[in-house]
């Protein structure tokens, strides 16, 4: 294995130019985004910038996606704010808490990557993720209201309208003006501008220009803020940002409530991973490349660890900027490294200017960028497609909104697991009979088949495991109690891909109960791998009947006809 | 629906005689058992007797098994002791805690029964249950050492040998003598006596006599204790039992830590239910009867509620006494009602004598009765059959033994769920090709088949749901990245019984990614119910390809050959 990543081996001047151009656009887009998400997380602005430097370089060297752009994202920033807010950390302990979250979630991801445990992310079903993201979009929007309106908003969700009305007179008109103008500019950039641009340039260029609008709005806002001295007109501005590079440091361990951060950091890491992999796969597929989930876990894990030691905040692959990077023609992860340098330079030169930026402008960029996250159409689709998934979606959405992000996500995961277990605990089964004159056996309820009162043939359409083993026992008990003349029962195992130890116990139990009732228990059409396993068990020795290769053989031998 | 239970309608004198005889034997067996399990739970002896009166009557009228005998059982008594011990309740609050546990677990079971949620019990796989029961048997045995040896034993599990050696000189010889004699008598009754009896009587009678040995040992011990004045020889005796009937009462709500009892009572209820249903099904099957799990939940729930208001302790169907009841010829639940009257009479007449019973004798009956619970052979079988189930078994066993019953059970459940998800997250799939000259398609790795580089046919052998949807995306991404000439991909859905919303999203994503890569995505052989559902989704509208009835049609139309 070479020390250099694969893409570095044939790195040409042409690729350098493409990567460089993409990096320039991504840098301009990342600056306002980084500042905004730091504000959303309740952190000083430089945390967002620092999280967009070292993590980008580390991910470029260790991740598996060629075009994913990592950095702070809206949902993780919200989760960071929610976790740290709950622990009521203050000042330097708050920023240390964010670093600790990045370190711990990085540790989790690295651990999962090294032990190839990426499958744990599958615990979060799409419905749960969708409900969670939609609720996050609402929570994020609400959290920005105080910056947009320039007032203090406190209290629970349902008290919000009352508080808003009560405080409506305290809203500073200048702040409101800045918010409205920024929102209109940003929304128009999304809705109207692209149509205009498409007439004069390619779709890729149009997308890039649209994505640069937040940077343009932020820069214009800074200029106007200085010119009009908005701060003295009552418009809150960003706190001053120290110019310079991040320093490698370590959070103050002994002041932090580590135990309380373990579960949140796990959830944060998983949510980030699920989001990032989904984006990475979509982009990779367009160029028929692929990403490797375990390698992604390691890349994202190391990126978060590096964010944690360089004054940053939790990071993952972001949707908007990855798409921009891809559309702008980035060919290799080197584009990420160039963007990191871009942010560093911006941090050095641009930082002093930031103290003139109105908070309302950043809040407007946040609100506009999370608008697309609220996926209301998904609610409708899921309702029509599956009530079970819809319940998981709604539980996650409602609990996240009312009780908090962690408990919302965990409830969603539990509900979807419960529903899955509920669905698979009743395997489909059919009493089958022979289609006269053939070797075929079909469901007696759907076809005209030959049956025999001494012989019952049962087909089970699911792998047998702990969640449905008990049901099989019951189905057989019911069928047997209805058939006084029964002498033989044959279980047709065509669809059984796996039999776990619980199901094996159930089969032993069924065999024993049938034996006590004077009925022979047979198996038919057991698949190869399942049979290999059964041969290591007691079942074949204890079985009161035989194992038949085909159901037809059993039918003939047991006197079906 | 009649108010009388079904069996009461044609209740004859013959059935009365059979039920009465069974009730007599069960009563004699229940008395020592009830006292012993009350001691195990750390409760006064009458709690065990009271738990064997009202709950038996209530279960007889509401349960669905004809021969199940409910009452205190070893594992629930251990769980009660562990829960209440952790909360460090004292005196009357301790007994109130046991009543609260019975009430809450009864409430849970009733709730599950009314809402038909019995499937939640499937969360506890056989391996987890087996590991839990085995660990419980060890914990129960160890907990009785202090009664058997008449010394105080404190400290953790690994300190036990040291403590034992240190205190060996403090063991009262008389207590040790009583313990050894009782253990020998009880063990001989199990091992040697039955062989002797079988020569002179029927197996059923022999079993009944063997089961009565504990009662005989207890009665002999009382007589000898009085004759030899064992108490003054340093042998600890049972505290005095008030003669009389249980009084309906209610635990002192406001002194109890209700919140801390919620999870333990849920686990206690589920463990009791799983045990009871397994016994009930085995017994019912012998007479080709059946039990209804939701009705059982209601029966056991009401039984526990009645135990909670009549000075009892948590109850469920016990294995040993249900078998005795069955073997002694009980025909209907009326036998349980007669046994309840038997216990009542015994409580009235026998109670004053109990204060002469050495605790060591009760401890010996406990130890001998739980010997059979430690299922060491199951460890070997599970190891050979499935490493995944073996890990769940061992985690449950070790954590229960070292960290406590609740956390042990919960860890086991989580590990088995994780392992299940791990197993089902990688569905079996095969690239299939046509067997020349036929309409059959088979795995290219196992058969000589025709393939086509423009057309890829993929068979997936599992229902698609959130745990394996991501894997399918990856499999397809990998296959596509290896085949530059690919134009069509057909997914053969023969084995797909269900597609949940997560999997639907994955299919939409796959369709979109393939479209971007210039590949048409088709489905073939979709089952009826799955197709019904897909028709309510966007997939069929967005699909870049078609849905074919058979894979052969797709092969022909897409130019496979």
From TrEMBL, chains A, B:
Organism: Oceanimonas smirnovii
Origin organism lineage: Bacteria, Pseudomonadati, Pseudomonadota, Gammaproteobacteria, Aeromonadales
Matches recorded under Pfam families: STAS (PF01740), Sulfate_transp (PF00916)
Residues covered by the STAS domain: 445-558
Chain segments annotated as transmembrane: 21-41, 47-63, 70-92, 98-119, 131-150, 170-189, 209-228, 261-285, 297-315, 335-354, 361-378, 390-419
Compartments, record wording: Membrane
InterPro entries to which the protein is assigned, alphabetical: SLC26A/SulP_dom, SLC26A/SulP_fam, STAS_dom, STAS_dom_sf
Keyword Ubl conjugation: no
Keyword Cytoplasm: no
UniProt protein name: SulP family inorganic anion transporter
Keywords: Membrane, Transmembrane, Transmembrane helix
Membrane-protein topology: Multi-pass membrane protein
């Amino acid at each position: 294995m070479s020390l250099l990543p694969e893409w570095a081996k044939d790195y040409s001047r042409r690729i350098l130019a493409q990567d460089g151009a993409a990096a320039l656009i991504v840098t301009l887009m990342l600056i306002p985004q980084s500042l905004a998400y730091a504000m959303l997380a309740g952190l000083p602005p430089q945390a967002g910038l620092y999280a967009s430097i070292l993590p980008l370089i580390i991910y470029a060297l260790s991740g598996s996606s060629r075009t994913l752009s990592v950095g702070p994202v809206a949902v993780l920033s919200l989760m960071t704010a929610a976790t740290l807010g709950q622990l009521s950390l203050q000042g330097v302990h708050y920023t240390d808490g964010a670093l600790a979250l990045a370190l711990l979630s990085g540790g989790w991801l690295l651990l999962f990557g090294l032990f190839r445990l990426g499958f744990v992310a599958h615990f979060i079903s799409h419905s749960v993720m969708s409900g969670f993201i939609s609720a996050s979009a609402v929570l994020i929007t609400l959290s920005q209201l105080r910056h947009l309106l320039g007032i203090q908003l406190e209290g629970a969700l349902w008290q919000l309208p009352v508080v808003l009305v009560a405080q409506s007179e305290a809203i500073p008109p200048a702040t409101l003006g800045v918010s409205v103008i920024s929102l209109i500019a940003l929304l128009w950039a999304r809705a109207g501008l692209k149509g205009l641009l498409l007439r004069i340039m390619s779709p890729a260029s149009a997308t890039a220009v649209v994505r640069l609008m937040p940077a343009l709005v932020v820069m214009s806002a800074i200029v106007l803020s200085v010119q009009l001295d908005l701060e003295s007109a009552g418009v809150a501005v960003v706190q001053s940002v120290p110019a310079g590079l991040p320093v490698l440091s370590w959070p103050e361990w002994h002041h932090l409530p580590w135990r309380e951060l373990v579960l949140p950091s796990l959830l944060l890491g998983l949510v980030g991973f699920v989001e990032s992999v989904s984006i990475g796969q979509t982009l990779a597929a367009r160029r028929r490349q692929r990403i490797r989930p375990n390698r992604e876990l390691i890349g994202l894990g190391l990126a978060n660890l590096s964010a944690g030691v360089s004054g940053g905040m939790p990071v993952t692959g972001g949707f908007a900027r990855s798409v921009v990077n891809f559309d702008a023609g980035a060919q290799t992860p080197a584009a990420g490294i160039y963007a990191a340098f871009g942010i560093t330079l911006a941090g050095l030169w641009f930082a002093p200017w930031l103290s003139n930026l109105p908070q309302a402008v950043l809040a407007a960029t946040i609100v506009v960028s999370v608008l697309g996250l609220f996926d209301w159409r998904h609610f409708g689709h899921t309702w029509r497609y599956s009530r079970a998934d819809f319940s998981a979606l709604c539980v996650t959405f409602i609990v996240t909104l009312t009780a908090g992000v962690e408990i919302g996500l965990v409830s969603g995961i539990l509900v979807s697991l419960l529903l899955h277990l509920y669905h698979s605990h009743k395997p489909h089964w059919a009493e089958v009979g022979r289609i006269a004159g053939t070797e075929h056996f079909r469901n007696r309820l759907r076809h005209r088949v030959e049956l025999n009162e001494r012989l019952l043939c049962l087909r089970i359409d699911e792998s047998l495991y702990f969640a449905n083993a008990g049901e099989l026992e019951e189905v057989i008990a019911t069928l047997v109690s209805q058939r006084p003349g029964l002498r033989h029962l044959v279980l047709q195992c065509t669809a059984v891909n796996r039999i776990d130890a619980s199901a094996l116990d159930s089969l032993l139990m069924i065999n024993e109960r049938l034996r006590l009732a004077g009925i022979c228990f047979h198996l038919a059409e057991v698949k190869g791998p399942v049979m290999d396993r059964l041969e290591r068990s007691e079942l074949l020795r204890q079985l009161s009947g035989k194992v038949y290769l085909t159901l037809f053989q059993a039918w003939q031998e047991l006197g079906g006809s």
